[in-house]
Design brief:
- This protein is α/β, with parallel strands linked by helices.
- The protein is globular and about 65 Å long.
- It has nine helices and nine strands.
- The strands form two sheets. A seven-stranded mixed beta sheet has the order 4-5-1-6-7-2-8, sandwiched between helices. The protein has a two-stranded parallel sheet with strand order 3-9.
- The longest helix is centred in the middle third of the chain and has 29 residues.
- This is DUF1552 domain-containing protein.
- InterPro entries: DUF1552.
Amino acid sequence: MMESVATPAGKNDGGDAMRMVCISPTLGVYPKAFFPKSTGANFELTPTLKPLENLRGDFTVCSNMDHPAIFSGHGGISTFLTGIRGGNVVSMDQLAAEYAGYQTRFPSMHVAVGGGMNASWTSSGIRVRELGDPRDMFDQLFVPDSAAAIKERELRIQEQGSILDLVREQAKRFARRTNPADRQNLEEYLTAIRDAETKLQGMQRWANVPKPKVNYQPEGHPHSGQDYEFLAPMMFDLILLAIQSDSSRVFTAGFGMHNRMIELDGVSTGYHSLSHHGNRPDILRQLGIIDNFYIQQMARFVQKLKDSPLGNRGDGTLLDKTMVYFGSGMGDAARHSNRDLPVVLAGGGFRHQGHVDCKTSGGDATPLNNLYTTMLQKFGVEIESFNGATGTFSLS
């Protein structure tokens, strides 16, 4: 299905640029089958992590990391990439997307199987929605737009630009008579306008640039939205093609929260019901199949990146230039716990350490935003602390 590397769409092939892929099962994983008991480079892989066996040295597993300010059960899903709550709290991936901007056709891309992740938030507090079908992602990336569609988009861009000009002038007049109580609301409003203007300018830049060509065609059809064995490999293959063609440098991908039966051999119970397993052996067996499948998909994707040389973009492989992060805002869905979140980081040119126990000398968990700060710095963002991080995380 995927025989060749996509041809880059623009002149800048991003050879030296870092990429970021954030993968999340929104309900987390069963902790006892995920976290290793030993630490260091030669730690013993647990049943859930077993698919990563051939990638030792390319990833780090962290235990005792979480968001210390989050105690909201399923609400932790929406704070997975922010670590804190608030009206205009930007998520880690969107801060990276702001930095990358429209150097690529899409500052970021978001896709999820089985339902949304609700994890990505812009600096103006707007939730970024995921595509629910990887085939829609294929259309956005590689299917050429018709002449009529291009013309319609150009007209829409012009109309939206005119509306923004009008709104900006109205906001300026309103600003002259605002009181302090209204000033914060006005600033949020103006931030949203600036975000919209940046988006319009980016869309104009790429409006007439042909999409890259690939020898890839989505074959067949899923049985349903829960046909993970069909949809998940396609999702990650398309992300790989998007990276190879430098169509985007920031991605979120994952698996949503629902109580439908996932189409995997051996699974016969609704997903959310399985997460509240009550330590029943049959339920844990089914949950283990799903959790193992998630890591299988990550391992398959990481291996493909490792097998993709940079070629004329430089020495090394795409894995050296791609941070692949697996995690969730749920630590133990059975208890609605947001403590000790599952964390695996692969690639990115880091010196990986196997399994690291991140419990502090005082017995507390390390803030996960410390790792996010390190990832953002690796991406190129000039930042000292992301959303209240207490430091960075050493992977050098």
